[in-house]
Amino acid sequence: MTDWLFRGDFGSAPPNVPAIVLGLLLAFACGHAVAWIYMLTHSGLSYSRTFVNSLIIMPTVVSLVMMVLSNSLVTAFGLMAVFAIVRFRNILRDTLDTTYVLVVIVIGMAAGTMKFSTAVVGCIFTLLIMVYLWGTQFGARQRYDMIVNLHWGRPTTDLDDLKNLLHRHSLRSICASQRSHEGYEGTDLSYRLLLRDPDRMDQLLMELRGLQGVSRVTGLRAEEESEV
Amino acid sequence: MGPLPVIPTPHAQKLREFRVQFLPAIVFACTLGAIFGLWRAHFSPPPLVSEGDPGAREIRALADTQGGALTNMPLARAKGALVQAIRR
Asked: CB A87: neighbour CB atoms within 10 A?
């Protein structure tokens, strides 16, 4: 029944579908492990979520490239030429954009060299990876829904009351900044919150304003796109 | 002040947390399982590894320069070779 798919390669070499799937899975797993290690060990301000995503997709795409090329020097030069043409008139600033361009080129080459099975399997596989990365927000290190800035007028030893209230509304709270001056009564605090229910943000702000020692409360909703 | 009761988390939010926190690990584990299964099923190492000897032999024969035919070829010494007989 699936012969039309598994025998759909008319290139120079017959297709080996288990080998194709194993190669793609292996590339995905290795890229996934590399991306996790990168997320764990990266330091500095240059962290990019899209770069982490491309670390996962790129090995799979390269694996697909090698399957399509299959020792054909002519096809390899064709790939380079097409990619150079696309890259020549487009400035791809994002690594993930470059990966997407490479994906469509490789799928086009697979179809053009009559490796239809490889084109179908590779396309489905890369699409599944892209949806997976989007659905899991893979690569996001600092997830929060809301930023709360407030002035705490009581001693910092009494912060447990505030943390208690934040815990009531949030799964995770991180104190991003704590500022106090000499001759300035109280402390300015800024928290990043991953809310239990983002729709009840107003209730959190209202309860914060009602807490003794809290004033100048401002809330800012953080969107997912805030982290590049 | 005692600990305040936490507000309930909607199902959509729970699903989002599951997708973000646990799904990558599940997908990675399933991928490893699929790799292991495919590798074992289709790419297991061969049970026997052997080395072949082509058994090269040197055969010399006189050549009839006019007709292009081999004459006086000692096939008996090339026993077991691929060339068993040469006919004109």
From this structure: 13
The mean per-residue pLDDT over the stretch A55-78 comes to: 88
Which whole number is the average pLDDT over A157-168?
A: 86
Q: What is the pTM of this model?
A: 0.73
Q: Which residue of B has its CA nearest to A132?
A: B24
For A205, residues 6+ apart whose C-beta sits below 8 A from its C-beta are A148, A217, A219
Q: What is the ipTM of this complex?
A: 0.78
Which residues of chain B neighbour A22 with C-beta distances below 8 Å?
35, 38-39, 42-43
Q: What is the mean pLDDT of residues A13-42?
A: 90
DSSP chain B: -PPPPPPPPPHHHHHHHIIIIIHHHHHHHHHHHHHHHHHHHH-PPPS--------------EEETTTTEEES--GGGGTTSS------
Of A79-83, A124-128, A172-176, B6-10, highest mean pLDDT? A124-128
Which residue of A lies nearest to B33 if distances are taken between CA atoms? A25
- Would you call A206 an interface residue with chain B, using a CB distance cutoff of 8 Å? no
Check residues B4 and B17 and name the one with the higher pLDDT. Answer: B17
Q: Rounded distance, CA A105 to CA A65, Å? A: 9
Nearest to A196 among B9, B32, B39 (CB): B9
Decide if A18 and B6 are in contact by the 8 Å CB cutoff.
no
Distance from CA of A88 to the nearest CA of B (A): 36
